[in-house]
Here is the input.
Amino acid sequence: MTTETPGAVSTPTPEHLAEEFEALFGYRPIGSFRAPGRVNFIGEHTDYNAGFVLPIAIDRAVYVAIGRRPESAENTGTVRPPRRGESTRIVSDHRDDTGQRMSGQFAAAELVPGTLPGWLSHPAGVVDEIAKTTGTVVGGVDLYIESTVPVGAGLSSSHALQVAVLIALDEVFDLGLDDREKVLLTQRAENDFVVHRRASSTRRRRS
Here is the structure.
């Protein structure tokens, strides 16, 4: 179920996100989290170059439902710690050209900047930076994503995705990050992982 008021965009409720998550992964999520898009009054192309910025949040957001995969098929009700090389699985409500939900998976220990396609590099960059910053190797989790932020409209949909994923992982893995640490972590994820991917893609097209 989503909530909607006249003239407004439908907002996914926590129960709706939980139901979609369970239908995809076969178990209930731990919880759901959100991060808003934003408008930049100044700083559209200086935020990733250490320049001045003045953004404000908007009423559209990215929503993430997250769960730790059960310990075994017997569904014991407990979860085991992630194993090195264990994947993070992500499914989005956005559809590709064939009408299928966009999805992907990756293992934190195997992440290399420039190797993941498009949107998937944003949550992967967050997972990679979590490992570098906190020493926590994220794995054994599933994420379901919905968004009301228009893509490609200058409303920072990709950064909202990064922040929502980080908030969810911070809660599930008890990372203990404060707001400033979250800001700096997503900044590094963008600059060191995602922008690296864009640069690599450009070099491949020119070669």
